[in-house]
Amino acid sequence: MKKVLLFLLLSLTLQGTAQVLSTKDSISIFYDSLIYQLQTRYLYRGDVDWETIDPLKKSALEAENFGKSLAMCTTLFDTINGSHLNIFSDHGWFRWSKGKQYTQEQFHTEFLLKYEEQPGFEVKVIDGKYGYILMPSMLMLDISQDSINLETQQMYNQIMKTVNSHKIEGWVIDLRFNGGGNVFPMLAALYHFLGDDTLYTSLGINHTIRSIVTLRGGIIHDTEDGIDRARIIPIAQPDLKTPVALITGIVTGSSGELIPVSFRGRQNITVIGEATAGLLTGNSLTELPFDVKLTLTTSFLTDRKASHEPLITPDVIIEKQANFKDLSKDPNIIEAIKFFETIIEIEKESNKQ
């Protein structure tokens, strides 16, 4: 423990004096910190031949400046199969290069056009009676906890405005543009549909439970460090009966996949669309020297019963279909409405008995 504290203290001290360090010293300090984090905390560290990493650090030291040296992080992540590792810095975003390579032919034209718009969070009503929530990626790396809570409350309030102004017979949560980010504000904003429950668990390197993430009274709580990750102030009791359809696509990944996992166990739920990207591992945001952030893969993400699957396979498969100009004509949403109508009929029959 003393060695760890000494290392962290040294790192913090060096960050404060980085402006007087040579380029090589700065690069060396950074890569020593990065490799230390990977060797001690990376989920798949036991599968790595760490002797292969030394030449990569030496190559990074040849860079003409610190910013350009960060490009070696991609090679490092490729070498250790770090499919979910990311470096965020003022010099750019660096991640592994061996991931799935998508082509335009894999997507409907409507999806590509919408994607170019970089869509944000949206709440709409389809045909006057079906709620629609577009939940895209949300990094939120450089904002305070108060700002995260404010953003979360605003999303929740948008949802509740529709709840209170329409008689909604079913909700669509569209995750096709959600490739990852901070899942906590996403889940807290969906409190009205999730209610008070355990959402998911994370497993460590030996597949033992590392943490349990719960939602209670609009507050997302993580047992690993005892921190409240996001919160809203509810304005109504949760609705756990109105049916919900989650739509996934081939780029739905990480937090986008964790949302369907968190809905498992709720009644009247279905998943429609395409199999997801397969990034159901948990990342911890880790500060590195010189204002660099690392999302470090530290756990397997599982449902509340600690059952892990590598990706989400929809209940109803609909491939390469989209219509964002007229959502009522989107085949995914047409299928969702069929699901809602089936649930409504079942409830009517049940009430007759």
Quick summary of this structure?
With 353 residues, the protein is an alpha/beta fold. The chain is built from 11 helices and 14 strands.
Which tags fit this structure?
single chain; 353 residues; alpha/beta; eight-stranded antiparallel sheet; six-stranded mixed sheet; 14 strands; 22% strand
Description:
- With 353 residues, this protein is α/β, with parallel strands linked by helices.
- The protein is built from eleven helices and 14 strands.
- The protein has helices at residues 2-16, 23-41, 54-60, 66-69, 72-79, 109-116, 145-165, 183-189, 191-194, 255-263, 331-352; strands spanning 86-89, 92-95, 122-126, 130-134, 170-174, 197-203, 209-216, 219-222, 227-231, 244-248, 269-273, 281-288, 292-302, 316-317.
- The strands form two sheets. Strands 1, 2, 6, 7, 8, 9, 12 and 13 form an eight-stranded antiparallel β-sheet that branches. The chain has a six-stranded mixed β-sheet with strand order 3-4-5-10-11-14, with helices on both faces.
- The relative contact order is 0.13.
- The model is unreliable at 1-18 (pLDDT under 50).
